[in-house]
């Protein structure tokens, strides 16, 4: 969000900034199916991971951007990098976490990701506090980028063959390429699409807070920071629960989704805080158990492609649902609340079919 807004510094209009950010996100999701397929086909997961992370270097290079056009190109490059690395990275995580529990592994990854998400903007705060500007902030981002590359090299040297970790752990879940497994994946994809179509984006919550005067402008980023903190904590807790109880834990995703619109759109301060907390909790669950389940539902050699499809469904459904929710909100808050509630209700029976079919499959449940 902050790098995209920085385009304003080079004279871009608000519409241009929004278009650049939206187009970057679209590209970042649209090509994940292709990069996931190619990662599986080649087996060179680390090549895709390293190439994708190298493209993060486009962000520190913003210090050299002299116009919004160059800044836009660098921002889109970073989004493409995420598309290149994400399916392969999730596949590597699925292999590496087979011994300790995929729920815990993905939960730990999400928690650390949120720490980084908070630390990055804090570098900008430090730059501005020292009398600097956007260029100074982007220059400081070169430090974590170098540390990232060092950590990436250590990880690659430690586990050059990710699939070897899974076979060595002896905990590989047998997933046959049968009509039953394909049906489970189709149902799981349908559930993901439905539940994300009924999940609100935080900027709309922020708009609600401001439009009704629930929060002063200065407190809105604080609420977002609280949501991110809750995200990190819940990711660890729900990851552990997934490893113990299996896919039944996924039922928490639509159940929390049912409560969010009933609470978050209230005009009271306390309800607004509760809504932000629940939103963060839902994000923590989505980024942990939804991804861990993809790994358990797919065979080792096809996870890059599976994660590419999952990410595309996840992002596409969230975007489409957000457009509908935003339009309904403008027509009346109750319309948006009703849509979100009904969509999450529709997700529950679909997920229940996934849970039932998984429970009948040896090796797919946990006691």
Give a description of the structure.
- The chain is mostly helical and 367 residues long.
- It folds into 2 domains: 2-169, Up-down Bundle (Growth Hormone, Chain: A); 179-359, MFS general substrate transporter like domains (Growth Hormone, Chain: A), CATH 1.20.1250.20.
- It is 77% helix and 0% strand.
- It has helices at 2-5, 14-30, 32-42, 45-54, 68-96, 102-129, 134-140, 142-158, 162-169, 179-197, 202-211, 220-245, 252-264, 269-297, 303-331, 333-359.
- Helix 3 packs across helix 5, helix 10 (179-197) runs antiparallel to helix 16 and helix 15 runs antiparallel to helix 16.
- The N and C termini lie far apart (42 Å).
- The model is unreliable at 172-176 and 360-365 (pLDDT under 50).
SSE map:
Elements: H1 2-5, H2 14-30, H3 32-42, H4 45-54, H5 68-96, H6 102-129, H7 134-140, H8 142-158, H9 162-169, H10 179-197, H11 202-211, H12 220-245, H13 252-264, H14 269-297, H15 303-331, H16 333-359
Brief summary:
Helices cover 77% and strands 0% of the residues.
How many whole angstroms does the radius of gyration measure? 21 Å
Strand content: under 5%
CATH superfamily of the largest domain: MFS general substrate transporter like domains
Under CATH at level 1, the class of the largest domain stands as Mainly Alpha
Low-confidence stretches: 172-176, 360-365
Query: SS-based structural class?
Result: mainly alpha
> Could you name the CATH topology of the largest domain?
Growth Hormone, Chain: A
The total tally of domains equals: 2
Sheet with the most strands, sense and barrel status: none
Q: Strand tally, please?
A: 0
Level-2 CATH architecture of the largest domain: Up-down Bundle
Helix content: over 70%
Q: Number of helical segments?
A: 16
- Give helix and strand order, one letter per element, not per position: HHHHHHHHHHHHHHHH
């Amino acid at each position: 969000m902050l790098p995209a807004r920085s385009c304003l510094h080079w004279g871009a209009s608000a519409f241009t900034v929004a278009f650049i950010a939206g187009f970057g996100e679209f590209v970042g999701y649209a090509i994940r199916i292709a990069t996931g397929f190619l990662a599986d086909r080649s087996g060179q997961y680390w090549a895709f991971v390293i190439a994708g992370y190298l493209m993060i270097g486009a962000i520190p290079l913003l210090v050299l951007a002299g116009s919004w056009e160059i800044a836009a190109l660098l921002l889109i490059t970073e989004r493409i990098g995420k598309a290149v690395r994400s399916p392969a990275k999730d596949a590597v995580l699925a292999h590496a976490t087979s011994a300790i529990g995929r729920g815990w592994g993905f939960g730990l990854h999400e928690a650390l990701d949120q720490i980084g998400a908070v630390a990055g903007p804090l570098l900008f705060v430090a730059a501005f506090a020292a009398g600097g500007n956007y260029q100074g902030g982007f220059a400081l981002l070169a430090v974590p980028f170098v540390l990232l590359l060092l950590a990436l090299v250590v990880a690659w040297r430690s586990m050059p063959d990710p699939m070897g970790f899974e076979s060595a752990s002896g905990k590989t879940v047998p997933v046959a390429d049968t009509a039953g497994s394909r049906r489970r994946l189709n149902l799981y994809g349908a559930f993901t699409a439905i539940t994300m179509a009924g999940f609100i984006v935080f900027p709309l919550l922020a708009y609600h807070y401001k439009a009704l005067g629930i929060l002063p402008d200065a407190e809105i980023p604080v609420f977002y920071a609280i949501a991110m903190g809750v995200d990190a904590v819940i990711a660890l807790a729900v990851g552990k629960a997934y490893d113990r109880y299996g896919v039944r834990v996924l039922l928490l995703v639509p159940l929390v989704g049912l409560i969010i619109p009933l609470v978050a759109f209230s005009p009271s301060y306390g309800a607004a805080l509760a809504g932000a907390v629940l939103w963060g909790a839902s994000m923590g669950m989505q980024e942990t158990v939804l991804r861990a389940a993809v790994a358990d539902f797919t065979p080792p050699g096809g996870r890059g492609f599976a994660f590419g499809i999952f990410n595309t469904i996840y992002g596409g459904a969230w975007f489409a649902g957000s457009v509908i929710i935003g339009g309904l909100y403008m027509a009346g808050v109750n319309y948006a609340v009703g849509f979100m509630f009904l969509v999450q209700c529709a997700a529950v029976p679909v997920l229940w079919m996934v849970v039932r079919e998984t429970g009948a499959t040896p090796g797919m449940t946990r006691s």
